[in-house]
Amino acid sequence: MTRFIHQNLYIFYTAVLGLFTANVFIENAALEYVVGILAIPMLLFSVLGATNLFRILGAVFILIGTVMYIYADLPYYQIPLYLTSTMPLLTFLTVLPWMNSIVRAARFDRRINELMKANVTDLSKLYVRSSFTTYTLASFINLSALSLSQEVLLENMSKMKKKVKDSFISRTTLRAFAVALAWSPMEIIVAITVDATGVSYLSYLPWLLLCSVLVISIDWIWGKRTFNSISYTPSIERTNHKLDIRKIAFKIVHLLIALTIFMIIVVTIGNHFQLNFILAVTLVILPFSFVWALLIRRWRSFLSIGWKTWKMRTNGLQNFVLLFLSLAFFSNSLNETPFLQVIQEPFLATSEYPLVTLILIQMMYLVMSMIGVHPIATIAVLMEVLQPMYAFINPLSIGMVLITGALATATVGTYGVTVTMTSMNTKQNPYHITLRNMPFALLYGGIGTLIGYLLL
């Protein structure tokens, strides 16, 4: 029975999230309550397939939320209405695999990954090349880029000592991945921040790009110096592999043009229909992917890859369903109590010293990531806490720190998805990955904080 439920969760999730999205436009109170009622079995089913870490997080948020709900003396029949505020994020995650699928169907990922398969005689050059490859792919296919890049590097570096190989892969792939997502409209942290601060995505874009380019450039210099003295022996199978720069450049330009058009459409539709950023991105992804597949004549492979990927990813959403629904209940209950003001006090106390506030946000991300709290859970609390401070501190500055601080944890969050995945792929201790990347995380967060401070 459990297996049957797990294999068909995509039907239930899609139905509930489809109803929620439709009601955004219909605005029917009865339908809103129905969606809230359906969120309860969503939450229960998700517990079955969620990992222990997310079960613990979900249990904590629900327990604390329940205590605050009772403290606020709210009627029990309103509980379903307190579970739906994060459903836009779940809807966003549900359609995201279709954008990943068109990139894979057009074989953009394979062509760009050839950058790492070509003959390289210098480990420092391979660092820049593999970092650039991961950076480019992560901008479009998110987490899948990490797995692809690490797979290629493990193959190419099969003759290298394990210590060198582990250090190299955990640096170049995780750091490029974290930096690439800073400006991507398909990154959920970016979408959450845009909506939370009320600052348009286009206002963030140039500063996020600046931060991204600065950090990746510094890391390339850093990486080249670190690995310059280490000899590199590529695998025999790849020594004579020829690199077709023109084809790869064409694929990269194609992707950049597609992403630019996508961003223009999202912003235009969002402004015209007065939609929040997350909803605008969600509504554009599916039709944009289908039209893109038609234009490049990859319709059949897109449908084949897309359907399998979407079904698998949606069935595997239990962690995020549990996290987001429990977060919604916690956040909405918190807003009904005076406890929110208590949590806000440390931040309000530093309002006259904006730099201290921005550093405090960064440190909160790092500390929470060390104990296994997902950055989305951290940002959900910070959004409620920081809202009154928009009157004292430029929301754009706060947003810069919210984004860079959250993404920096992708390189050091010991219990996070990215570090755990890297640990499993390379068979190394996740704590070693955390310690190795901590200086980079502080650099990334520090540059984000500096840019945020200069924007005050």
Automatic annotation (TrEMBL):
<feature type="transmembrane region" description="Helical">
    <location>
        <begin position="6"/>
        <end position="26"/>
    </location>
</feature>
<feature type="transmembrane region" description="Helical">
    <location>
        <begin position="395"/>
        <end position="418"/>
    </location>
</feature>
<keyword id="KW-0812">Transmembrane</keyword>
<feature type="transmembrane region" description="Helical">
    <location>
        <begin position="248"/>
        <end position="269"/>
    </location>
</feature>
<feature type="transmembrane region" description="Helical">
    <location>
        <begin position="79"/>
        <end position="99"/>
    </location>
</feature>
<feature type="transmembrane region" description="Helical">
    <location>
        <begin position="355"/>
        <end position="383"/>
    </location>
</feature>
<keyword id="KW-0472">Membrane</keyword>
<feature type="transmembrane region" description="Helical">
    <location>
        <begin position="317"/>
        <end position="335"/>
    </location>
</feature>
<protein>
    <submittedName>
        <fullName>Uncharacterized protein</fullName>
    </submittedName>
</protein>
<feature type="transmembrane region" description="Helical">
    <location>
        <begin position="204"/>
        <end position="222"/>
    </location>
</feature>
<keyword id="KW-1133">Transmembrane helix</keyword>
<feature type="transmembrane region" description="Helical">
    <location>
        <begin position="174"/>
        <end position="192"/>
    </location>
</feature>
<feature type="transmembrane region" description="Helical">
    <location>
        <begin position="56"/>
        <end position="72"/>
    </location>
</feature>
<feature type="transmembrane region" description="Helical">
    <location>
        <begin position="275"/>
        <end position="296"/>
    </location>
</feature>
<feature type="transmembrane region" description="Helical">
    <location>
        <begin position="33"/>
        <end position="50"/>
    </location>
</feature>
<feature type="transmembrane region" description="Helical">
    <location>
        <begin position="438"/>
        <end position="455"/>
    </location>
</feature>
